[in-house]
C-alpha cells in the first residue's frame, strides 16, 4: 500500500477504458476521477467502482497521473491541447500523462513536446490482450518514455491493469510497437480467413481446420481466441472494431515507411483491411471474414 493516496484521472471509458479504470479503482490504492464525453457513462461507472466523475477534462487539474484510453492520437491531442498547443488541463507541474490508446507514434511525440513545454510529461503505454484481459487486469503494456522518472511515477497505476510491462525505449516507441504487433495479428487474421474460405470451398470442415491449426504450426492468438467463437462460431463479437484494427495496421505501414523499408506484406494487409472497412463500416473486425469469403 502506498504511504499516501495518489490522485489519478482516467479519460475514455469505452470498451477497454471501462474495465481498465475499474481495475485501478479495485486496487484501493488511488483516488480515481473519471471523465468521458458521455457524462452518464462516467457517472454510472464511478458509482459502480467507487470513483468520482467530472464533466470537464479541466476538472482533472488536481490529478498527479492522468491516463487516456481514446480511439486515436488526434483525439488524445484534442483532449489535452487546444488549437494553439496549450494544455486544456491546468495541472500542476510534473503531472504525468499516460497515453494507453493505439496512437500514431509521430503524433505522440508532437503531443509530448507540447506538454513538456508546459512542464508536464507524457509516456505512451498502449495495451495488448483485448477486453478479456482488460477485465482480468492482465494486459501486456508497451511503455515508451523520454522521462524515466515520469515513467516510474506512472508504473504503479499501470501495474493495476497489466501482467507484464515491456520498456520499449523513448517516447513513441510503445505506440510503434503496438501498431507493429497489431499488423502481425492482422496478417494472421487475413491469412487464416483466406485459408478457412478456401478450405470450406474444398470441402473441409472449418471446426476441423481450426483444430488442425491449433495442433500444428499455423497456431496463433487468432486461431486459438478469435476463430473458434467469433468466425467459425459466428458470434462476430471480439470487441475489437474494424475501424480501429485498420487504423493500427495503417499506423504500422507508416512506421515501415518512416524506416525506409519495403513492406509488401504490410502493404497487402493494409489494402485488404481497408477494402473490408470501406464495404462494412463500423463493425467487429471479425466480420471482415464474411466480406473476404463472399466477394
TrEMBL record:
<dbReference type="InterPro" id="IPR013328">
    <property type="entry name" value="6PGD_dom2"/>
</dbReference>
<keyword id="KW-0520">NAD</keyword>
<dbReference type="InterPro" id="IPR008927">
    <property type="entry name" value="6-PGluconate_DH-like_C_sf"/>
</dbReference>
<dbReference type="InterPro" id="IPR006115">
    <property type="entry name" value="6PGDH_NADP-bd"/>
</dbReference>
<feature type="domain" description="3-hydroxyisobutyrate dehydrogenase-like NAD-binding">
    <location>
        <begin position="172"/>
        <end position="288"/>
    </location>
</feature>
<dbReference type="InterPro" id="IPR036291">
    <property type="entry name" value="NAD(P)-bd_dom_sf"/>
</dbReference>
<dbReference type="Pfam" id="PF03446">
    <property type="entry name" value="NAD_binding_2"/>
</dbReference>
<dbReference type="InterPro" id="IPR015815">
    <property type="entry name" value="HIBADH-related"/>
</dbReference>
<dbReference type="Pfam" id="PF14833">
    <property type="entry name" value="NAD_binding_11"/>
</dbReference>
<feature type="domain" description="6-phosphogluconate dehydrogenase NADP-binding">
    <location>
        <begin position="7"/>
        <end position="169"/>
    </location>
</feature>
<keyword id="KW-0560">Oxidoreductase</keyword>
<dbReference type="InterPro" id="IPR029154">
    <property type="entry name" value="HIBADH-like_NADP-bd"/>
</dbReference>
<protein>
    <submittedName>
        <fullName>NAD(P)-dependent oxidoreductase</fullName>
    </submittedName>
</protein>
<dbReference type="InterPro" id="IPR002204">
    <property type="entry name" value="3-OH-isobutyrate_DH-rel_CS"/>
</dbReference>
<comment type="similarity">
    <text>Belongs to the HIBADH-related family.</text>
</comment>
Amino acid at each position: 500500500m502506498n504511504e499516501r493516496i495518489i490522485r489519478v484521472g482516467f479519460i475514455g471509458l469505452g470498451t477497454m477504458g471501462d474495465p481498465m479504470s475499474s481495475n485501478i479503482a479495485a486496487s484501493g490504492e488511488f483516488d480515481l476521477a473519471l471523465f468521458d464525453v458521455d457524462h452518464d457513462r462516467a457517472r454510472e461507472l464511478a458509482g459502480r467502482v467507487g470513483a468520482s466523475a467530472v464533466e470537464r477534462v479541466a476538472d482533472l487539474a488536481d490529478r498527479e497521473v492522468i491516463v487516456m484510453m481514446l480511439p486515436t492520437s488526434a483525439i488524445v491531442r484534442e483532449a489535452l491541447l487546444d488549437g494553439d498547443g496549450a494544455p486544456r488541463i491546468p495541472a500542476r507541474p510534473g503531472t504525468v500523462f499516460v497515453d494507453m490508446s493505439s496512437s500514431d507514434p509521430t503524433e505522440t511525440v508532437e503531443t509530448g513536446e507540447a506538454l513538456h513545454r508546459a512542464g508536464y510529461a507524457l509516456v505512451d503505454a498502449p495495451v495488448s490482450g483485448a477486453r478479456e484481459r482488460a477485465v482480468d487486469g492482465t494486459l501486456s503494456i508497451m511503455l515508451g518514455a523520454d522521462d524515466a522518472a515520469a515513467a516510474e511515477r506512472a508504473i504503479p497505476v499501470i501495474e493495476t491493469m497489466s501482467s507484464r510491462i515491456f520498456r520499449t525505449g523513448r517516447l513513441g516507441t510503445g505506440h510503434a510497437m503496438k501498431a507493429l504487433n497489431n499488423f502481425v495479428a492482422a496478417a494472421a487474421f487475413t491469412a487464416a480467413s483466406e485459408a478457412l474460405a478456401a478450405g470450406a470451398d474444398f470441402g473441409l470442415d472449418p471446426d476441423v481446420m481450426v483444430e488442425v491449426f491449433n495442433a500444428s504450426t499455423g497456431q496463433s492468438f487468432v486461431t486459438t481466441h478469435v476463430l473458434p467463437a467469433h468466425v467459425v462460431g459466428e458470434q462476430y463479437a471480439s470487441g475489437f472494431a474494424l475501424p480501429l484494427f485498420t487504423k493500427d495496421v495503417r499506423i504500422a505501414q507508416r512506421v515501415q515507411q518512416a524506416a525506409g523499408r519495403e513492406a509488401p506484406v504490410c502493404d497487402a494487409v493494409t489494402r485488404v483491411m481497408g477494402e473490408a472497412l470501406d464495404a462494412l463500416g463500423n463493425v467487429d473486425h471479425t466480420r471482415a471474414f464474411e466480406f473476404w469469403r463472399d466477394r
